[in-house]
Structure formats: C-alpha cells, structure tokens
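=== RUN LOG ===
request id: a7f3
mode: sequence -> structure
chains: 1
length: 412
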Amino acid sequence: MTNAAFIEHRIIMTPGPVEADPRVLKAMGSPIINPFDARFLSLMDEVMVMGRKILKTDNHYTYLINGTARAGIEALLSATIEPGDKVYIPIFGRFGHLMAEIAKRAKGDVHTTEKPLGEIYAFNELKKEIDIFNPKVVAIVHGESSTGMMQPLKELGAYCKKLGILLIVDAVATLAGAPLETDAWHIDGVVSGSQKCLAAPAGMALLSYNKRIEDIVKQREKIEQGLDKDSDNPRMIPSNYLDLSQLQRYWDKERLNHHTEATSMMYALHEAMRLTLEEGLDARIKRHQVNMKALVEGLKAMGLTIYGDSSHLLSTIVCVNVPESLNPHLIRNELVRHFSVEIAPGFGPLKDKLWRIGALGYSSRKQNVLILLAALEAMLSKHGAKINQGRAVAKALSIYDDSSTERGHPQD
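=== RESULT ===
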C-alpha cells in the first residue's frame, strides 16, 4: 500500500507559486457543498465585489475561471480576437511570447516587436508600432516574471482609448503586489492568477473586462446544445470550457449550468481576497515594495548584480546574475537540501545565467528575506564565490529599520 504523502515545509522564494497563507489553507478545508447552493452562490457574488476592489475597476464582469492564469489569458484573448483581427503584442520576455501564441491560435493577424531581454518599452516605441499597424487589440504583459521587469501602462492605456483600440493586460505577477489601476489606466481586459500576490494555491484565474469586450462576447454567444438546442452562432468562441459568453452567464443572475465549480478553490480565493482587503491594498503593495527593496539591497551588498533595467524592476520578483564559474542549479538544489529554501532558474537563453527570486503574497515576509539572504550567502561561500560575507543580512535589516511599514504579521 502506498504511504500517505508527506510534504516538507518550504520557504518558497520563487516567482510563483508562493506559500499559501495558512488561513487560506484552513478555508479550503471547509465542507464541500453544491455549487448551486444558495450559500455558495453568495460566495461567488462576494468574490466579484472583492475582485473589483482589488483590480480597481467598476467592471460588472469580474470573476474567476477554473484554471491557472494562463487559462484566463487564453479565455480573454480567444473571446476578443476573431479570425483576421489585427493584434499587436510587444514582447519583452517569455510571457509576451505566450500571449502571441494564444493570439495566433485564435487566428488573429498578429504583429509582434521584441525588446532585448532585461529592457522594457518606451511609450513612443509602442505608439510608433500602433500607428503603423492600426490593431484592434494590443495585448501586453505588465510584470514580466522571466526578466523581473515592469512595463508602464498609463500612457499606453490612454492612447489605446483615444484610438478605440482594446488593451488587454497580463497582470499575473503584479496584482496586489504593485500598483495596478484597471479603470484609471483604461485597461479593457485584465487577467491575474491565484498563486502569486494573492497567496492562494495555483488553479484559479481572476479576470475582468469592460463593456467594450462584454459587447464582443455577447455577439459571439453560443450556448451548448444540451442546454439550448436552438443556439447557433458562426462567430462562436472556439473553446467551450473557456467560452466567456457562457461563463459570464454562469456568474450572473441566470447561473447557467456551464461546469462544476471548484468549490475548495473558491473558498481559497474568497479568503485570499478577503485577507488582501483586510490588510489594505495600498499597505499590501507597500509591504511588497519594502521586502523587495531589502532583498535587492541585501543581494547587492553581498556583491551580486541585478539583471535588467534598474529603473523598471518589479516589486515582486528580482532576477540575479549568477557569479561566473558557478553551477546555478547546484546552488538551487543545495538551498533546498540544507535550508528548505526554493528559488527559480531563468527561462530559455537565461536558464544558466540568472536566478529568479520572488517575494510575493504570504512569501513576502521579513523573515523569509533574511533567511534567503543568509542561506544564499552560505552556499555561495561554500562553493568559492567571490562575495562580501556578512553584509547582506545587515543591509536588509537597515532597510527594515528605516521603514515605517513594519506593523507585525504578515509584514514580519
């Protein structure tokens, strides 16, 4: 007989998933009830209200999709893009490529530009491409977790609105950890995930879209024949499971019986969103900023160098150049073996060149930052890296001492 699984605790300092808040895990142990139970439906309504507050939007359709953030991105792009639609996707890392692939699978006429890794776009660069290509949709990543870069969106959103272009944003690495103003920045559709700054397990996507996208979705509506034998639409969204025209009717008062909701994950997101608002969105963002500053300054004090444009670093994820002659994967493995601390490798051409270190959600805590710095210093010293010993933790502590945000758990 197979033994019961035993999972050792990890200090997770990766770009995601992160440590789930214990109160979220506790909520997941609540009894399973029917997804059409009146109490469960009220939880869905509460999630929509809390989602609007966290995303800073008045969009009616602000809800969850069963699946990781990628499912949400695919659902939103597939609902918005029809065959031949012109789509511009500025790429500055792995996840811009993902959006481009999804848009191509939706049979859009996709135009991409690509910045060198570690850089972001100036608004004038984006404006130039938009003026030339004249797209229906611009789709862009806000926080690129493959490079640790954050792309400014305010000017882009205003320009897209001026021209009547739809702006769709991947906010997976930034929501609740960095400023994100859905309505004020004129973002038409936005997607995030459960496993990053919201500090819940992976498995749910949060998305929101305004009336402009809502109108497109309604024009493409097609209800499956088992529910409506007369429903037909040659413009129907190609995916059934990720069909927003049916999903939004499930989340609305009609409660269309589209799928079986993941009840325990709904409990998790309900609690995660409640805790986010209880802490205060501005306070939560400030916590991420302070912990990331302590982490970055500690790494620099150790003698390590930060990858990418230093003026556009994420406040949730930092990429660190691996010292010469070191095996980056050996260091990562030994961090787990000796300290139960996890960091992530780079992607693609950066796989052997950098580490990606996150401080998101419940993982964004002072003790995690200090333990990571001490553990990394120990492993680098063990393997002969030329670093400044004894400075990293002291530097991080000085950042915390200078900060006025330390108010106890979960900041500590």
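=== NOTES ===
The first strand starts at residue 11 and ends at 12.
Confidence is low (pLDDT under 50) at residues 405-411.
=== END ===
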